[in-house]
């Protein structure tokens, strides 16, 4: 059995336990450092906030989470490590880069213009996976890439190519960001055409659409679907996410879905408007799935064992690299 790098050491797929696969302890969109009069919470406050959130998760039986924040979105692995050590919780962090629209593209597009973009990105990803992030000694356990809605730009394709190279060299799995339930099938196609095994890929935010054919195409082609924005009603309603998840379970694809919220516990710079968190309970609350969604699933006829598959078995299977069985056409 392989090991998984966490921010506080290593773990194994068997030791993950109940796991959320897409939450953020801290996020900062590029440029946050310019808002000097609104820097966001202090380090002590960030630690306290994150420890409170993790305590709530531990009370619900969770023992692990994946924070797939890429390096250009305010990633703070030292914060993750301090919180993980103080709580005994397992946190897996990511290497990678965000999409062209919202990431740190000026620097990396300059590297692309110099002709070294993909190689420099891949070198960075490999170093953070095998040696550590900066001088922290903290290793990433997964690669994160992101694309915008409706199309994959040339820049985003370069990041995908670099991620594929790093994954093949290190064996690290990949998780992705999609927008509006689009481009996940194309992400999968590019990665697999470059040699990345489909079962090493999570197509994130797949719950941004209720297109069952889109979901099943990705599932049949052997990758995991991230239903990882529960509670973000501003983006897409939970009612449709739940209905789509039920259809996937009924279609036999429950062994390739992972769940989460994409919650953000601390923001660098100006925080989210309060009206956002009021209308989207999952924006800052990683307990929403367990407290609000699971009861609806159970009432609709989903079994407790199927819920455990989503929260325990599938994260374990994904990180173990187990091959998924074929689904019927």
Topology of helices and strands:
Elements: E1 4-6, E2 9-11, E3 18-20, E4 24-27, H1 43-59, E5 62-67, H2 77-87, E6 90-96, H3 105-113, H4 117-130, E7 142-146, H5 154-170, E8 174-177, H6 184-193, E9 201-203, H7 212-220, E10 224-227, H8 238-250, E11 257-259, E12 264-267, H9 274-279, H10 288-299, H11 304-320
Parallel strand pairs: 3-5, 4-12, 5-6, 6-7, 7-8, 8-9, 9-10, 10-11
Antiparallel strand pairs: 1-2
Distance between the termini: 32 Å
Largest sheet, strands/sense/barrel: 8 strands, parallel
The name of the CATH topology is TIM Barrel
Low-confidence stretches: none
User: Strand content of the residues, in percent?
Assistant: 5-15%
CATH architecture: Alpha-Beta Barrel
Q: Count of helical segments?
A: 11
Beta strand count: 12
Q: Can you walk me through this structure?
A:
- The chain has 329 residues and is an alpha/beta fold.
- It has one domain (4-320): Metal-dependent hydrolases (TIM Barrel).
- Helices cover 41% and strands 15% of the residues.
- An 8-stranded parallel beta sheet has the order 3-5-6-7-8-9-10-11. It has a two-stranded antiparallel ribbon with strand order 1-2. It has a two-stranded parallel ribbon with strand order 4-12.
- A hairpin with a 2-residue loop joins strand 1 and strand 2 (9-11).
- Helix 3 (105-113) crosses helix 4 (117-130) and helix 4 (117-130) runs parallel beside helix 5 (154-170).
- The chain is globular, with a radius of gyration of 18 Å.
- The two termini are 32 Å apart.
- The mean pLDDT is 96.
